[in-house]
TrEMBL record:
Domain WYL: 157-225
Signal peptide positions (record): none
Protein name per its UniProtKB record: Proteasome protein
WCX domain span: 253-325
Stored InterPro entries: CBASS_pafABC_assoc_protein, PafC-like, PafC_HTH, WCX_dom, WYL_dom
Domain PafC HTH: 20-132
Gene Ontology cellular component annotations, sorted alphabetically: proteasome complex
Residue ranges that the Swiss-Prot or TrEMBL entry lists as coiled coil: none
Superkingdom in the source lineage: Bacteria
Alphabetical list of PROSITE patterns matching this protein: WYL (PS52050)
Length: 333
């Protein structure tokens, strides 16, 4: 085919995206290996493109290969006779297979995703395909890939919350506030259900607080669907939860004193202010959505930090620390 006719063919074809072409090339390689010597016209007909496009694809494949990109690694494509012969492309034509680690990661992610979706059929179908595809991996190792993840389904409120979220209905929650040792009644428009730091939460617009709130699933004592539209108001915005200490306007204010060894918290977490002592210690003021996050931080830091305010949170931390030490037969200082 002449250069002039090839250019004319390109001019008549609609624009093709790089993604579309890549998809065709990935299909073209194994097909040509299975149809050795196929005429260019037949290949063009099979893939629904012009003969000129097939030639362009072959010209591109001719400079593709595995890392190293020397003569031995590049695909060998011949088509001068009008028939296509492809060699040295077996590695590229071999379908990609998941490693066991990749399969476990995808399985865990899909299980977590499926548990938060109201209509999780797609995630479930994909999960089934991955498990089927990794059956050979299981046969070669210790057994079938199965993860026992806490998807929240064991909590009696989860099904009700997902139904309310799917139907866009408001829910009435009976919710325990640990820092005040108080059970509260709240009407909530659900915005999302998510897992954060190994704990399940419901995020929604709380009509009692008139603001966005995070509710821990294990502290929801009961949930009832109301016959009221549950669409959050326009001012409701999901929190940026990349950092669990991202402050909200009406969050709990917490003051922490930390020794020089734990002074890094002043730089690591967004805060409302820091007072630094001459010995390297810090006094940090934070705003947090869930006091449990502070309690976990204090337990992790051990004796290097303590909660100063509010006093009820300081007492809660002390109780948890005492219980943890008692489990090891130790007495708190």
């Amino acid at each position: 085919m002449s250069t002039q006719s090839s250019r004319a063919g390109r001019a008549r074809r609609p624009a093709e995206t790089a993604t579309q072409r890549l998809g065709r090339l990935l299909d073209l390689v194994p097909w040509l290996l299975q149809h050795r010597g196929v005429p260019i016209a037949e290949a063009a007909d099979e893939f629904g493109v012009s003969e000129a496009q097939i030639v362009e694809d072959l010209e591109l494949l001719f400079v593709c290969g595995t890392p190293g990109y020397g003569h031995a690694e590049l695909i060998d494509a011949q088509w001068d006779s009008g028939h296509i012969y492809l060699d040295n492309a077996d590695d590229i034509a071999t379908p990609m297979r998941l490693t066991r680690d990749e399969a476990v990661t995808l399985t865990a992610g899909l299980q977590a995703l499926g548990s938060t979706l109201v209509r999780s059929e797609i995630a479930e179908r994909t999960l089934a395909k991955i498990r089927a595809a990794t059956a050979s991996l299981a046969a070669q190792s210790t057994g079938r890939i199965a993860l026992d993840l806490d998807d929240g389904s064991q909590h009696p409120a989860m099904a009700t919350l997902k139904e309310a979220f799917g139907r866009r209905r408001r829910v009435h929650l009976t919710y325990y506030v640990a820092t005040r040792d108080e059970t509260t009644e709240r009407d909530v428009d659900i915005m999302r259900i998510l897992n954060l730091d190994g704990q399940w939460y419901v995020e929604g617009w709380c009509h009692r607080a008139n603001d966005v709130r995070l509710f821990r699933l294990d502290r929801i004592e009961s949930a009832t669907i109301l016959d009221v539209d549950g669409t959050p108001p326009p001012q409701a915005r999901p929190r940026d939860l990349d950092d669990v200490f991202v402050p909200g306007a009406n969050d709990l204010t917490v003051v922490i004193e930390a020794s020089s060894a734990a002074a890094w918290i002043a730089d690591y977490y967004p805060n409302e202010g820091v007072v630094r002592g001459s010995d390297g210690s810090v006094r940090v003021t934070l705003k947090v959505a869930d006091p449990a996050l502070v309690r976990r931080l204090m337990l992790r830091l051990g004796g290097q930090a303590r909660v100063v305010e509010p006093p009820e949170l300081a007492e809660a931390v002390a109780r948890e620390a005492t219980a943890a030490l008692a489990a090891y037969g130790q007495t708190p200082p």
